[in-house]
Amino acid sequence: SVRENLKHSTTCVINIKQHSVSQLIGGCANNNNINGLVLNINTSLDGPFSLDILTDNIFYLDIRNLQAIPVNITATKNIPNLRILTIGIQGSFSIINNSFFYYFPRIEKISIYNTILQSIPSLSHLHTLTYLGIQNSVFLNSPNTQIEEEFVGGLYQLKYLQISNPSPPISSISDLALRGLSSLATLMLDYNNIHSVSENLLQYSHQLNSLSLCHNNITYLHFRTFQQLPFLTWIDMTDNPFNCSCDLQWMYTANHAYNTSLMSIICKYPAEYEESKATSQDLYTLCPPLPLSLQCLNKSTPLCPSPLSCYNTAHSYQCSTCPPGYGQVSDSRCL
User: Fold this and answer.
1) 168 SS3 class
2) Distance between CA atoms of residues 113 and 231, nearest Å
3) Under 8 Å between Cβ of 236 and 209
């Protein structure tokens, strides 16, 4: 049943309660006043539901499977003007094939939740994509889930990326997985099984300002992972089994630079520090002084003790009295 008056509405909401739906959907899609389509699926369909019936004026599509019943959604041709796609299909036999994502050349936002995907899709061809969120979904044919470059690599317009609580969980991320994501501002990879984060993972994402890696199995973080991120202001690393040692001493200093949850990190190892805060000052009383090179995380948030300043050298930022190439003279001038 079409809930809205098609002549006066921009969004068509259809509650599918019978087996044949093409006529209803076609009635919405063929109306020039309609540019959005919401499908509430309440019954098993008599065959695959093809998006091919959508016309060029549809830019927003929201598919909801309210009864967790099998739904087979397909597409075999481009849907040229579709910009926003939301899918929530809970049926155990409702599987989205990877080829499904080939037909949205101008898509800008994809939200997927409670849905079974054939595997981790290759989306690197969707060059207009700015938002990708995948939550509580299943990667059916990915027993060892690793994020590779083919997933979203090269999407220079992508600003928001989230993969939260998938099954199986993400276990590792390639150094090149985020290659070309120069506009990425928010990265959410919480509730996964990530064990380590490469110091090169974020080397392409200099615009990053928010990062969540909470609820993983990370035991160590290298300070260089965050060194070239001048806009990073929020980090959430809670609920990871950190191995607290002097190698993590930089975290204590980093809390003065970022509005982070690093101060809330709880140690798992070694046993004598279990349940202690990783950034506890008492934990580092036995550590040697923090090297000056680690106190200068980036130019925007210098952490050098006075009178030293943070300078950009050939390969990293360093705490120094004078810029690179300058020498200090007796009256504290740099020449």
Assistant:
1) coil
2) 29
3) no
Residues whose CB is less than 8 angstroms from the CB of residue 319 and which lie 6 or more positions away in sequence, other chains included? 292, 293, 295, 296, 302, 304, 305, 308, 309, 310, 311
Instruction: Render 196-260 in DSSP notation, one character per residue.
Output: ---TTTTTT-TT--EEE--SS------GGGGTT-TT--EEE--S--EE-SGGGHHHHHHTTTS--
Closest CA to 99 of 112, 80, 118, 115: 118
How far is 22 from 80, CA to CA, in rounded Å?
A: 20
Q: Which residue has the tokens 């506009």?
A: 183
Side chain identity, residue 262: L
Cβ contact 162:136 at 8 Å: no
Count of C-beta atoms within a 10 Å radius of residue 271? 7
Provide the whole-model pTM.
Answer: 0.77
Nearest to 224 by CA among 243, 202, 252: 202
**Token code pair at residue 241:** 């089994």
Residue 185: the pLDDT is 97
Q: Return the beta strands (E) in 94-225 as ranges.
A: 95-96, 109-113, 116-117, 131-135, 138-139, 146-147, 160-164, 172-173, 186-188, 210-212
The closest alpha carbon to 239, from 262, 258, 221, 257, belongs to 262
Measured distance between the N- and C-terminal CA atoms of the chain, rounded to whole angstroms: 79
Mean pLDDT by 10 residues, the chain (335 residues): 41 57 57 68 58 72 66 75 84 68 91 86 92 91 80 93 94 91 96 91 91 92 79 86 78 59 72 74 62 52 58 60 59 52
From CA 204, how far away is CA 290, in angstroms rounded?
Answer: 27
CA 182 to chain centroid: 13
